[in-house]
Input
Amino acid sequence: MPEQTYLDAIRSGLEEEMRRDPAVYIFGEDVALGGPFGVTKGLAEMFGANRTVNTPISEATVMGLAIGTATAGLRPVIEIMFIDFITLAMDQLINHAAKLHYMSGGQLKIPLTVRVQCGISGAMGAHHSQSLESWLAHVPGLKVVMPANPADAKGLLKSAIRDDNPVVFIEHRALYWTKGEVPANEQSVALGKAARLREGKDLTIVALSSMVAPAMTAAQELAAEGISVEVIDPRTISPLDIDTIVNSVKKTGRMIVTHEAVEHGGIGAEIVSRVQQEAFYFLDSPIIRVAAPFAPVPAGPTLEKLFLPNHERIVAACRGAVAAS
Amino acid sequence: MAIKKENSKDVIELLRRMWLIRAFEEKVSALYAERQIVGLLHLGIGQEAVAVGALSLLRADDLVYGGHRSHGHAIAKGADVNKLMAEIAGRASGYCGGRGGSMHIVAKECGFITATGVVGGTIPLALGAAFAAKERKKGQLTVVFFGDGAGQSGPFHESLNIASLWQLPVIFVCENNGYAEFTPLSAHTKIERLAQHAKTYGIPADTVDGNDLFAVRATMRKAVDQCRAGKGPIFVECLTHRMRGHYEGDPAKYRELSQLAEWKKKDPIARVAGALKRQKALTDKELAKMASEAQALAERAAQFALASPWPQADAVADQVYAVANT
Output
């Protein structure tokens, strides 16, 4: 299989879907120029500026506009440059996109893909570094996807664009330049299916997005200590493939959940709740979350590093879980 | 008020539609008072000339977006009053199966795409529909209704900017009824006429007497022609007044009784009826018959709604997501 960066995989997913379906349109700030990271580079030249549409910095209205095109038969993809700015578009996304199918008794469908990038990289501070996925996963009617590698990024994006519902597709900026094998053909990856990245018998780590790589590193380190770790990437947090997680925990009896978002009220809490309900008698130790502190993201590089959960913290949590039972 | 260039046969049909809206909303109000309908209801009694005048010139495939006070817009676009009443009453036979209610009417079959509970919430949606229509190149128009209260919101201004920038085929119809919820426009902005905002963004705009059906029609005729010819967006501000409170149950103490009496003299239905009578197109008896026919249709809609079953219990969390190929 050919290697691609996460960023190129997303770009080729967009290109393939625009070629496949003339109803796919892209809207966003600077998208015709490629955007700040080059994800949409070349698409305006390939498909025309009418299908790769530069918009003013008017997130609330552009989100509504994209939803409106969906109510009138298009399959829009909107790029919100940083997830922090999705706050400006929340009325349209939450009150309109997420609810129109239900509120209309099924008369309307909103096949909208919202591409955003999130997370910490490059000391950009509290307005360009957040992880807000748990807000979005709390809203009925939205699907929320967080790919952790290039193949999933491309395959899940294709599924998101083909889905008849609003899907928030959350890319992680720090992953853009990471490489991985990506199938060259038109393969899509189903939404709502977790991936088991490593098999183990002593403990399950559920890791999201940027935390998948540190979780894999931690699993490798722990293997040297004789702790066998299973790693699961949910990939989609709404709908959440809880069965894959529960089945893993029933086997291992221990679980760590890790994400870059702040711990309090994060999606980890939902995962923990579901696991304790469905696998309570299989648990050998309390479930531990490894996530960010309950604070805005600091801008300075030293503080930012302290804020970010890492593989050392995952290793420590795993050792603690094993020692507790 | 003069009929001028209008054909009196057409005007009779328009009056019939205005009466239907009035009778329908009066019935909604009565059912609410009897607690046969519950919920948050915003009636547009007194504003019928805007809905009927603006939408009477559209094609069936033109798309309409409303606001929270949009029963009249849906009826003017051709919505079935039985299914509309059933929706407001929360019944399974309603347009949205009882999930939308008064503020979230969707009647896709007749091109009334959606209303919204958020002030100004459909303005950006209408831009999107207009964008799609422009790409399809079939001359479809989009009309969006909103009130003066939306004129101080961010998306209103962003939308005017983008509609103008991209020359989208959208007609903005502002129902300036002078009140944003309980507060007069003058307490929210120094801008007296919302049409001024449109002009700032380079959009042609007119302000008309929204209680004059013929004035609304004349302005809309010009707007529809220009917009369909690909000349970009148009803004039509209609000065009107809601004869009820902001919502049913609102005592509307913020409004002077003298002001209400003044507006009653400008009742849009009475004005059209008067014009037809002066033309000797209709007699008093025929006008009274028209009113009672509208009331009978509203009554029948109420009976249909109240006799309809409530939604099944499993509908509470059904259709949250669209399933492929359905």
Notes: The two ends of chain B are 51 Å apart (CA to CA). Chain B touches chain A through 47 residues (CB under 8 Å). The CA atoms of residues 166 and 232 of chain B lie 8 Å apart. Chain B has a mean pLDDT of 95.
